[in-house]
Task: inverse folding
């Protein structure tokens, strides 16, 4: 039988038993320490034990302080694991952060507004965020950065593209498992839907998206980006009534961020001399509803 499966020695089953432990019993306990740490799932303490104990001794920590120090190492490691697992589940297409966002490059964005969104109060409230703007201005970057903030605050997040999401719902309708798919996309506290409006949608996509938005309404948040102003969403969904119903719910408790300006990608290329500087200045502004 493996040592870790053996019952713990009587010395640790009662405090009086421990007090009565012979020096020989303590030596046995120390020998069993690795197994006990495994059994208690204290993997970080087990792996770093020598280093942690040396450091505790060097700092002359008393027993209670040393125990707190060991527990802190375990908690930090478990939190790190939870975070990296949640980031994986969220399915972000790449790593982008708010620290990595150059606000000077996109003067139409109010940095204070984005920093306020980074507190994720809107996620706690079940509000939505709509990011509008032409290609390359940082919509996906901001979606990933805000999504990561939400994950690090403990919210469940799922990132998807409009094409992937609506393709899945259309398939669900065809295969008779729409309900399961709607439930799946309703689960995360924050659903990020990237790139609405880039590609033409199937005729029934608007109805299906409406069903999802209705289900999430005032429960979970949606962070959605589009290259088309909301006035054009009836064209995007191919149905004025459905588009109005979607926007009604989406914009009811929402923050709309409209980005005007040049593509960051092209700006980089222009800097490297690949393109000549634009003579016309910035791209045409995108009107937006809501505030
Ligand atoms: P969009 O989704 O609006 O088409 P992206 O977010 O994909 O644009 O941006 C294109 C690329 O440029 C990405 O690699 C992104 O990280 C980068 N980028 C865009 N805007 C900025 C910015 N203001 N600061 C730093 N990087 C940016
Ligand atoms: Mg994008």
Result:
């Amino acid at each position: 039988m493996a040592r870790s499966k053996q019952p713990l020695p009587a010395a640790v089953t009662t405090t009086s038993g421990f007090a009565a432990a012979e020096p020989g019993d303590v030596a046995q306990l120390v020998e069993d320490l690795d197994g006990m740490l495994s059994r208690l799932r204290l993997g970080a303490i087990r792996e770093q034990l020598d280093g942690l104990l040396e450091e505790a001794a060097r700092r002359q920590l008393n027993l209670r302080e040393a125990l707190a120090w060991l527990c802190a190492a375990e908690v930090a490691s478990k939190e790190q694991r939870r975070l990296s697992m949640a980031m994986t589940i969220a399915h972000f297409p790449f790593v982008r952060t708010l620290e990595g966002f150059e606000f000077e490059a996109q003067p139409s964005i109010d940095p204070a507004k984005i920093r306020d969104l980074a507190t994720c109060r809107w996620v706690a409230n079940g509000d939505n965020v709509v990011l509008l703007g032409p290609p390359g201005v940082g919509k996906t970057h901001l979606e990933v950065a805000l999504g990561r903030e939400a994950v690090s605050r403990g919210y469940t997040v799922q990132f998807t593209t409009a094409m992937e999401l609506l393709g899945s719902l259309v398939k669900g309708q065809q295969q008779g498992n729409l309900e399961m798919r709607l439930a799946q996309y309703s689960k995360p506290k924050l659903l990020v839907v990237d790139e609405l409006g880039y590609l033409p949608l199937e005729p029934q996509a608007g109805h299906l998206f409406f069903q999802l938005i209705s289900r999430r309404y005032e429960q979970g948040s949606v962070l959605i980006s589009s290259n088309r102003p909301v006035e054009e969403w009836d064209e995007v969904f191919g149905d004025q009534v459905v588009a109005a119903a979607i926007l009604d719910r989406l914009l009811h408790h929402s923050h709309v961020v409209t980005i005007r300006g040049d593509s960051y990608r092209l700006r980089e290329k222009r800097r490297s001399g690949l393109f000549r500087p634009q003579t016309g200045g910035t791209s045409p502004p995108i009107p937006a509803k809501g505030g």
Q: What stands out?
A: The radius of gyration is 27 Å. The longest strand covers residues 190-196.
